[in-house]
């Protein structure tokens, strides 16, 4: 890359990689594997921290976190074809430190800390509670899907595989403040949790991913 960055989002869109933002950075870079080169593209509308992003329908969506001045309540959309960012929607829900995945036109927001700014609704959610929400980029509709009060929604890692979102989180026991790592599956079609075998190896800053290998036989 042309610029040093940390806490950025690396996304694959139409055969290219995009490094979006970073700690208080607005710059975005695109990697072309055919040319083996990084180039700057249109920057974010503002620098962000504690945000997240994902690819959906060959566009990039960024939401949550903080700008240098305030909460970021905007959902930003980037079109690689036009190389432009647009303010896709402004919402009444502030979220940070979340993970984002997409299936067709639906973005799934996993974990993080969310705060509903509507005074007629609950003001905030437990900051250490695992939640799954969805946002449809066509209808612009939010759905609060599932929560698990005994699992942590912070510092988790997740990936999409077949019919579910696989989440590596932590178990929280409030009476003793003990924590241990757990592997969960959220089925996006049945809206159910499934506990899988505990992750075998302890560690820090771990990531899980899903790989699809071509059938060469």
UniProtKB/TrEMBL annotation:
Signal peptide location: none
Lineage, uppermost ranks: Eukaryota, Metazoa, Chordata, Craniata, Vertebrata
PANTHER family, sorted: KELCH REPEAT AND BTB DOMAIN-CONTAINING PROTEIN 13-RELATED, KELCH-LIKE FAMILY, MEMBER 42
SMART domains per the UniProt record, alphabetical: Kelch
Keywords recorded for this protein, A-Z: Kelch repeat
Gene field: KLHL42
Name used for this protein in its record: Kelch-like protein 42
Gene3D superfamilies listed in its UniProt record: Kelch-type beta propeller
Keyword Iron appears in the UniProt entry: no
InterPro entries given in the database record: Kelch-BTB_domain-containing (IPR052392), Kelch-typ_b-propeller (IPR015915), Kelch_1 (IPR006652)
Keyword Isomerase: no
């Amino acid at each position: 890359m042309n610029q040093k960055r940390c806490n950025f989002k690396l996304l694959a869109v139409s055969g290219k990689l995009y490094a979006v933002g970073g700690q208080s950075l607005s710059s975005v870079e695109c990697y072309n594997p055919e040319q083996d080169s990084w180039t700057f593209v249109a920057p974010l509308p503002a620098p962000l921290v504690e945000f997240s992003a994902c690819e959906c329908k060959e566009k990039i969506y960024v939401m949550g976190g903080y700008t240098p001045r305030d909460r970021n309540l905007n959902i930003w959309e980037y079109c690689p074809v036009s190389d432009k960012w647009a303010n896709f929607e402004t919402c009444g829900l502030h979220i940070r430190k979340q993970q984002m995945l997409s299936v067709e036109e639906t973005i799934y927001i996993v974990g993080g800390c969310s705060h509903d700014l509507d005074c007629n609704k609950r003001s905030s959610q437990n900051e250490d509670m695992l939640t799954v929400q969805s946002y449809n980029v066509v209808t612009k509709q939010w759905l609060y899907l599932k929560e698990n009060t005994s699992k942590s929604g912070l510092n988790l890692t997740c990936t999409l595989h077949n019919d579910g979102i696989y989440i590596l989180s932590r178990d929280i026991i409030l009476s003793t403040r003990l924590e241990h790592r757990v592997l969960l599956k959220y089925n996006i079609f049945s809206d159910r949790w499934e506990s899988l075998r505990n992750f075998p190896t302890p560690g820090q800053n771990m990531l899980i991913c899903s790989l699809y290998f071509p059938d060469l036989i």
